[in-house]
Please model this.
Amino acid sequence: MIDPATDHLVYVVPDLGIAVCEMEARLGVPFTPGGSHPGLGTRNALLRIGPRIYLELLGPDPEQPRPSSGLWLGAEEAVRHSLATWCVRSGDLAGLSEGPGQDLIGPVKAMSRTTPAGARLAWTLTMPVAPPPHGGIVPFFIDWGDTAHPCTGLDDYGVRLRALRGRHPTVETVRSHLSALGVALDVQPGRAALEAYLEVPGGGIVAL
Model:
């Protein structure tokens, strides 16, 4: 089961350059350089995994000073690669921030970055907290506004997100939190974690 409003998955890594090479080898396709997140100390690389879904590799940006509050999504603590959290599109971020699940999401914030080609992307999101709630199972939310979705600028190599699910020791609690936010996600018993399964060219499945 994949929520139809799923926007992207965030995979946090300690070194973006190394992670891109390793992930390209695993999936058999290239990633596209994204850009830096000014003031957050991070940068990213992207891969389209659906019509309007992408995988974001997020790591420290060596060309930015480290923020006093720490890198975005705890990237400085990423001693290993991990699927940290996911993002869902919404046209009512203000309503979400004041709704029944408000304690699970961060404040609404406007952000932007410049692509390597010089294009400016702007969006508004509920700023994700670190560590993400319930092992990343509870998403953050984004509104691209008038900005074209990043997938429109990404090559389609045929990689597809085929399943996204969560595992947690207190399943009913997490399910109730997701329901309060209007999010659909399969959650099963287990150690807190977010799991994604990608179909790659040739028909193989890669688990993240």
Observations:
- Residues 6-207 form a domain with the 2,3-Dihydroxybiphenyl 1,2-Dioxygenase; domain 1 fold (CATH 3.10.180.10).
- The radius of gyration is 16 Å.
